[in-house]
Amino acid sequence: MIRVLLVDDQPLMRSGFRALLEFEDDIEVVAEAGDGARGVELVREHRPDVALIDIRMPVVDGIEATRRIAADPALDGVHVVVLTNYGFDEYVLDALRAGAAGFLVKDIEREDLLHAVRVAARGEALLAPSITRRLIARFIAQPPAPDPGARLGTLTGREHEAMVLVAQGCSNEQIAERMAISPMTAKTHVNRAMAKLHARDRAQLVIMAYESGLVVPRDR
């Protein structure tokens, strides 16, 4: 059973998501909150598999709530997916940097919502290639100062290669095909890279790849 916690300051939005999620046999909504502060409290109380958190809320917004959850070692198994009305913007990028596994636009189709929750519960990032391209565009517009040695020196050559492919939007199966290895081995390389860099998930690995200079957008 996938346990989900909803955090949104709009009661109608929460009830709509709850109705869609609880119709499924494998998903249970364990609690809901109207602001980020209360949401973090409930995450600590219920330890859900997935926390769907609105980015823009009173008291504590979704970015700060995500940061608090990501900073708590006891909440390692909680995967945050941020909700936005506006598509990909600077708030979403900040949330991904804070530790979110991905994001959803609130007018998402029902099947896409269910797929996203199940993907997040498995510990995978909600970063389709199209989203990765938008991330790259942000780094082209505002390139960070690279510091590859300090952050990436512990990775093996294969882990470097796997991280580059993740940053290009590849799935484990695509990484396996590119590297001529099994999908399980590809997943192992990705997981080891995440562990060494203290990345919570693939979303943070993508951001680290660009922030560190390991991957440089061609248009930069």
From TrEMBL:
Record-level GO BP terms: phosphorelay signal transduction system; regulation of DNA-templated transcription
InterPro entries registered for this protein in UniProt: CheY-like_superfamily, NreC/VraR/RcsB-like_REC, Sig_transdc_resp-reg_C-effctor, Sig_transdc_resp-reg_receiver, Tscrpt_reg_LuxR_C, WalR-like
Keyword Phosphoprotein: yes
PTM annotation (4-aspartylphosphate): residues: 54
Record's keyword terms, sorted: DNA-binding, Phosphoprotein, Transcription, Transcription regulation
Family annotation (CDD domains): LuxR_C_like, REC_NarL-like
Residue ranges of every copy of the Response regulatory domain listed in the record: 3-121
Record carries keyword Ion transport: no
GO molecular function terms noted in the UniProt entry: DNA binding
Residue stretches making up the HTH luxR-type domain: 148-213
Descriptive protein name: Response regulator
